[in-house]
Amino acid sequence: MYLKMIKNNIKKNKLVTVATVIFMTVSAAFMGLTVLLSGNLLDSIDNLMSEAKTCDFLQMHSGELDMEELEAFADSRDDVEDMLVADFLNIENSSITLNGISLSDSTQDNGLCVQNESFDHLLGTDNEILHPSEGTVYVPVCYKSEYDLSEGQIMQIGNVTLTIEGFLRDSQMNSMMASSKRFLVSPEDYEKLENIGSQEYLIEFLIKDGCDINGFATAYADAGLPCNGPTITAPLIRTMNALSDGMMILIIFLVSIVVLLISLICIRYIVLTGMEKDRKEAGMLKALGLRGKDIRKVFIAKYIFLSLSGGIIGAVIAYIISKPLGIQMRELYGASGDNSGTFLASMLGIFVTESIILLSINKHLKKHDRLSAVEVISDRRKNTARKKDSLIWITGIMVASVFLCLVPVNISTTIGSERFVSYMGVGQSNIRMDVRQCDDIEGVSDRLIGKISSDPDVDMYCLMQTGSFRATLNDGSNVNLLTEIGNHEIFPLNYAQGKCPERDGEIALSRLNSEELGCTLGDTIILNRDGSEEEFTVCGIYSDITNGGKTAKIYGDPALDNDIPVMWSIIYVSLKDPAQTDPFISSYQSYCEEYGNSVKITDIKGYMDGLYGQTINNIKNAAALSFAAAGLIIFIVVVLFVRLMIWQEKSDISLKKALGISTRYIRNGYVRRTSIYIISGVILGIILGIFLGQEIAGMMLGALGAAGFKFIIDPAAAFILVPGFAVIVAVLAVRSGSREVRTIKLRM
């Protein structure tokens, strides 16, 4: 009997049934997709790092190298499992072409290497260890789509021609956020090309399980070992690898939460409306002696069946969508290996989502248990109240859907903006000049400053130089701080707390450093400079999502102490006429040709595109998915609610037709009545999308070191594209739903 009643109820309420299944399906699909993508990403990265035997500590260095000193240090450490020094031949980008395309505009440091023997292996597309033959080269896989490359094409380095044999995965430098990229060649070709580039070294250590990497890094710096270049640890490598696709997954997770909330709201209304439509049947069953609990079982059994259907369909959709969204992930990091755990986690996520929906439904159904047969049969609720509810719910859905569209769009425009550099630990300028990996960083920087200071096109400029200093904290512990020295007032940052260092004795810390070191405004840090200890007071805390988000800034002359080598210099320049940026860069690139790849000059937009272009593309994919979900939700919900309103007004519509009022006029009336609620929802959605969305995005980026996050809004997208899309879909849905008016017969 129960089964027959469920079948009859589904047949009688086809629209409501379909709408319920769709909401359950979409909720399950987004949650399942989030778990699938995040599980596959983390598994793929871990699998790649395991197969490649990624090092735990990497020190890039250019200049003289004492191997005996390094080996003695490694032998003296109980926490060192293995050590290697890998050669890296840095090639000037203008000397490299891939399939006829020059890399002169690349923001990456590109160079050649040979395969390592013990660890830090460069792997192929099947995660096999690569051994190129003479005359061939393996290209970083991230360049495959960027330059539309394929096997058999040509890579030109100066006058030397190499054939692209395949593409490599570099567990340490796969991400575009890693500033260097390695091309793998044979030892014979490396020796042939050695005179074209500048020699650098990757000093790498494997640390035994359970040992402290940060403690090892401090000991390395204290030993005065080679450090003329960036220092990278395994956690930072993992973070850089995960960040690009991770941002997309975080946005999809946010979408899944919003979709679940929308589904709970809509299904609640569907359940309550359905109970009212079926009140006479429920009343008859009560009159026949069935308890409210027994009647509820019929309805909950129906929704369990719908939930099971929605969960299965959602799981299939999540699996299908994960394939195109995971293309880049699989290309960069390979297959995730045994993904049974990820599959089970995805099923668990879908089960939890559907359980939340069913618990909500059960809660609403319980409200009818206490009603008597007479109360159930009689219509104690006025139609006007129901109609008003429908219109209010349309407003709520519009709010949630606009929010769903706007947040990914605002995140994308923010990260893509030139002003986003304020979250990277640098002030906003037109041009950035990096001086790295050369024997005379200070001398090259001074010569550039001399030329810039006399350039009539330059408005402002400043020189920043970075070194590593030993610091003593209030609790007596010692750490090494990556510290930037210069005048920080010329291109100031947006400080989350306090201000920039303006005088000697002041230091600003990045947010992650502040949290890790337990330092706040007013705390004291002692820096060891040139053998003497100087006391600094923390004056500010700022955002920085570069160098692992752990940096510091002090005021002073950029010339560092003689016994602490300059790791790199950065010169920031703003022009009187920003339109002259390209000619200015071309002129200075010609001037710096003698320094080879040691000086890199980019406009800030190009610098941002090089670092975050991949991430922005992923966020745009997530935004497109959000638009599709929001459009689907708006259309289904508005159609459903309009048709329910028409059902509630069936008698009134029939009477209007009898009085000669046309069907077209009645349908247009629904457009007029819903318009104010649609527009109100859009306006509220924009407000929430900007302010609440900003807080949510701030929490996401805060994990990476960005503090005090503010949206950089594109007015066209935020105030025209998103609201226009939502209004158009909603109006089309009203027009579609109002077709139900045609089916109502007139009566006198």
Walk me through the structure.
The protein has 748 residues and is an alpha+beta fold. It folds into 3 domains: 1-57 and 257-379, no CATH class; 64-225, no CATH class; 423-610, no CATH class. The strands form 2 sheets. An 11-stranded mixed β-sheet has the order 4-3-7-8-6-9-5-2-10-1-11. A hairpin with a 2-residue loop joins β3 (96-98) and β4 (101-102). α1 (2-12) packs across α9 and α17 (604-648) runs parallel beside α20 (715-737). The longest helix is centred in the last third of the chain and has 45 residues, at 604-648. The chain is elongated, with a radius of gyration of 32 Å. The two termini are 39 Å apart. The relative contact order is 0.12.
SSE map:
Layout: H1 2-12, H2 14-52, E1 57-62, H3 67-76, E2 80-90, E3 96-98, E4 101-102, E5 109-113, E6 136-140, H4 142-146, E7 154-157, E8 160-168, E9 180-185, H5 187-193, E10 198-207, H6 213-222, E11 231-233, H7 234-277, H8 279-287, H9 292-325, H10 327-333, H11 340-366, H12 373-377, H13 383-415, E12 431-435, H14 441-453, E13 458-472, E14 478-486, E15 495-498, E16 506-510, H15 511-517, E17 524-529, E18 532-542, E19 552-555, E20 568-575, H16 581-591, E21 599-603, H17 604-648, H18 650-658, H19 663-702, H20 715-737
Parallel strand pairs: 5-9, 6-8, 14-19, 16-18
Antiparallel strand pairs: 1-10, 1-11, 2-5, 2-10, 3-4, 3-7, 6-9, 7-8, 12-20, 12-21, 13-14, 13-17, 13-20, 15-18, 16-19, 17-18
